[in-house]
Amino acid sequence: MDLAFVQSGLLEKFLDTDAISVAEVASLLKRRGMRDGAPVFLDEETQMPVSPLCEYGKYLSTALLDETTLKDYGRVIGRLDNHLVDLNSDVLSATETDLVSYRSHRTQFQEKPIGAAAWGKESFVLDDFYGFLVNRKFLTHRPVRLAARGRNALAPRVRSSMDIRHLTFEQYRYFRDVGLGGQLPNAQVNPTFRGWSPLRDRAGADIALGSGTRWREWSTVLLPEIGLWPGMPGGAAEFIVQACAKYGKARTVYVPEDAIGSADLFCLLERPGIVRRAARTLERKVRDLFMVGEVDVAGGWVRGVLDGVVREFQMSAMPAKLRRITVFEGEFGLEALALFVCRGGLMPGADAWKGYRHRAWTRMNALADETTPHLPTRRWRWHDLRHTYALRLLTYLENTMDGSEPDLHARRRRHRSYLTGHIRHNPLLIVSRRLGHASPETTYQYLQYTDDLINEFEAAFSNWVGDDEATYAEIASHALSGASAVCR
Predict the structure, then answer these.
(1) Confidence of residue 82 (pLDDT cuts 50, 70, 90)
(2) What is the DSSP letter of 146?
(3) What angle do CA 460, 461, 463 make, to 5 degrees?
(4) What's the rounded mean pLDDT across residues 189-194?
(5) Cystine design at 61: which of 13, 38, 68, 235 (Cβ 3.0–4.6 Å)?
(6) Sign (positive or negative) of CA dihedral 428, 436, 352, 57
(7) Distance between CA 438 and CA 451 in Å, rounded?
(8) In what order do the strands lie in the sheet with 301-306?
(9) pLDDT digits over 436-488, tens only?
(10) DSSP string of 289-354?
């Protein structure tokens, strides 16, 4: 079976048939509610749609999932189908043992097994898929028995906590300046550095850390949103993130002045060169771009031409895919409206930012010496900057609330007083709102990193372990002599 995805933008380029026109196909996709990214399952020999897999792809499309999620769901079903073919089975005749076999293959026996978190997401898709087949009468019952209270029996039984990894001040500066910025550990310029746009990468790290936003939120920010637009006063910026936020949940993002300054430096020194070199390429692609002619900063909307039609969008409601192709007429020609641009003149994608981070990690390890901060065994992720923001802000707010009181008394007062009586000023809830967590329960997991657990252990067991008047050798000698006496 072949797996493809709906991509309406490719129709004009590659659809060449006398049976139906491009306009008719585009109109049909729109009328049927087929979104870009919807999976299409085709028979390898006939290239005809495979039922009921294609029906499930259409069902996913009407569920208004984003393009990336649609593709992920399609790949899960495609992998399941391939595994069932190897077992001489298919999705309609699969048994419980077939699906358990698939789980074992994914989590234990394949070349690179996936973890519990990844399998949890995959098992959710399988559960949803078979629920769809039962609801649409393709099957009379699910192949896998339901667990207690209707839970997904294939899902992992143990829920893993968040993988919270944060950086110290020294680690962050080393990551930003040496890894991304191409400096030497002694802050000198590295003459052998051949990286591309170090100021852009440094600005990305500063905005990620300073705002605490997720990668998709800070990497897709537009120039008017962050205040780097003609007529705007500069300084710190506040804007609403919604379409690029997790679950599309709208919230206000604050970017401090220092982070804006880092982005402004990139716009002054590096960005013009990238824009100038890419202007001619963008001119040739103008039919595929969203050409903005009017920007209303106060109202937060843009108006321009997309696919030959004048369209108006609220900036916060623009998804990443639309932001990537949004351009305006700048000093050197067509220019991306997004803050961050790459060699092609448009916004870098996920793979590009991943490459910047991987190359930075390689440089950091190659230049590490006795003066550099400790580097963990696993390379840092962009998301670790969000964790660092959360932990530092939570610690700062707690210390501000505690004043100069000793830790034990202050912590006791926190739980007795403002956690219940002063919700508005609760540091945990403030950080939860800033991070855009759906529930404060997620933010609770940061609490384990805000206190010095080692010192707490020493205080709690100071009189339990050790002996101020005797060394370990003396205690051991005494124990052995006692044992000898008993033997005698």
Answers:
(1) very high
(2) -
(3) 120
(4) 78
(5) 38
(6) positive
(7) 24
(8) 309-314, 301-306, 290-296, 326-330, 333-336
(9) 877 777 776 766 666 544 444 445 545 554 445 545 555 455 555 655 554 44
(10) SEEEEEEETTTTEEEEEETTEEEEEEGGG--HHHHHTEEEEETTEEEESBS---TTSS---HHHHH
pLDDT at residue number 60: 92
Reference 275, options 235, 225, 331; nearest CA is: 331
Q: Which helix (H) or strand (E) holds 40?
A: strand 39-42
Residues 6+ apart with CB under 8 A from 356: 180, 201, 204, 348
CB 89 within 8 A of CB 98: yes
Residue with tokens 């000793």: 406
CA distance linking residue 460 with residue 160, whole number of Å: 28
The token pair at 201 is: 């990468």
pLDDT digits (tens, 9 = 90+) for 362-410: 999 999 988 889 999 889 999 999 999 888 888 887 777 666 565 656 5
Rounded CA separation 219/204 (Å)? 7
Nearest Cα to 327, choosing from 300, 297, 287, 299? 287
Distance CA 139, CA 201 (A): 51
Determine the residue type at 153.
A
Contact between 481 and 473 under an 8 Å Cβ cutoff? The reply is no
pTM value surpassing 0.90: no
